[in-house]
Amino acid sequence: MPAFPTAAKRALADAQLRHNLANATSTIRQKRASVVGELDDWELLREAGAAIKEHTLSKLDTYLERFEEAVTAAGGVVHWARDAEEANRIVIDLVRRTGESEVVKVKSMATQEIELNEALEQAGISAWETDLAELIVQLGHDAPSHILVPAIHRNRAEIREIFRREMGRVGAPAPEDLTDDPARLAEAARRHLREKFLRAKVAVSGANFAVAETGTLVVVESEGNGRMCLTLPETLISVVGIEKLVPRWQDLEVFLQLLPRSSTGERMNPYTSTWTGVTAGDGPREFHVVLLDNGRTDALADEVGRQALRCIRCSACLNVCPVYERTGGHAYGSVYPGPIGAVLTPQLRGTASEVDQALPYASSLCGACYDVCPVAINIPDLLVHLRTRVVAEHHGWRSKPMDALMGLAGWVFGDSRRLAAVQRLASASRRVIGRKGTIGRLPPPLSRWTDARDAPAPAAESFRAWWERTRGGESS
């Protein structure tokens, strides 16, 4: 995967992608604004959500142990995974122990993060996504591009063609007369998935929240497919990031107001499923939780960066981000796209690769992401913090010409006489570089700056020159 600047340039050239993104994100933004505006105490809810998450992170070791005790007492089994490799090995071993060779999955970003599907495939185990958008992505041999709506980059006509071409190869085929009507597409997906639900003996899930007090896991969704995964199979394996904990059952009252409004623009989720351990004759006979670290402890150690772990995966920041709306999620090279991905991914994966080094720069720092975040993550501050870290760890990673330019700028601004000379030169060149009122394309490497923005041409007379002309050089 190329670094963001290269990937974004390619995405910007895709007119259909930009149309799909603009249409979808604007619709979600409007719905969110409407339902959030109904609550007089929305800012208080944000503060409460941020406070609960911050408190949990400050005592995460205690709450993780409490959660393990509660799950065990309820008949479940807790497994601890330091990284993706260990988590995948645990899940594969659990599936093999059942003797099964396939699993059904309810949407889980943690399993995408560790590339569980690929690991299962290499182990000879088929994994079937059951969330509608995830199904579209899987059948299209694609990758998710949005936290909430993984197939946001596809339109209805594209989805119809994917269903007609791919469904019959892995299960019940799509109807020959399938149209791009949403109801018909949903019905085709329902028929295709039904046989998998009824056949599968093992399910893999994620969780939106994990309650330390009771050992309860919570999944919120819009379709009901998740509930089929959570109740029909005999063995349920839940892969959960350690940051998903909340201390008490009562805390869900805050998050079950914040999450649906911020994500889908709804007052309530259509399906909110909770499960605690196992119960004889009701639901799965075996329940396993894989608690995933995979870089989260490193992020927790950063007093500034740790606030990214508050994220409840609502995707509100993606839907307001002018960068995401124009490039889509694939350009970020991570399962976590958009503003939150730009601050979370480099902390989970580190900044060894150019892809991760570029992510903190994939933003205009407009601040819209912070305004809508339901748990008040100050993403602009985090972006600046991580840019500083990238420079400190990989000095000059972007380009030596850019470093030279920054050095030259520092030299100019370091002396008033040099600055005055450059201002006179800029004013004199106004007719050349700014004939239409804005600075035109400059030669490389300055073209990297002018190609991405419209900046006003230099003034015909600088403030310094005006002051000396009108005040005779007198000091203020």
From TrEMBL:
All residue ranges annotated as the LUD domain in the record: 64-292
Classification via NCBIfam families: LutB/LldF family L-lactate oxidation iron-sulfur protein (TIGR00273)
Lactate utilization protein B C-terminal domain span: 391-469
PROSITE patterns referenced in this protein's UniProt entry, alphabetically: 4FE4S_FER_1
Keywords: 4Fe-4S, Electron transport, Iron, Iron-sulfur, Metal-binding, Repeat, Transport
4Fe-4S ferredoxin-type domain sequence ranges: 308-377
InterPro entries hit by this protein: 4Fe4S_Fe-S-bd, 4Fe4S_Fe_S_CS, FTHF_cligase-like_sf, Helical_ferredxn, LUD_dom, LutB/LldF, LutB_C, NagB/RpiA_transferase-like
Protein's recorded name: LutB/LldF family L-lactate oxidation iron-sulfur protein
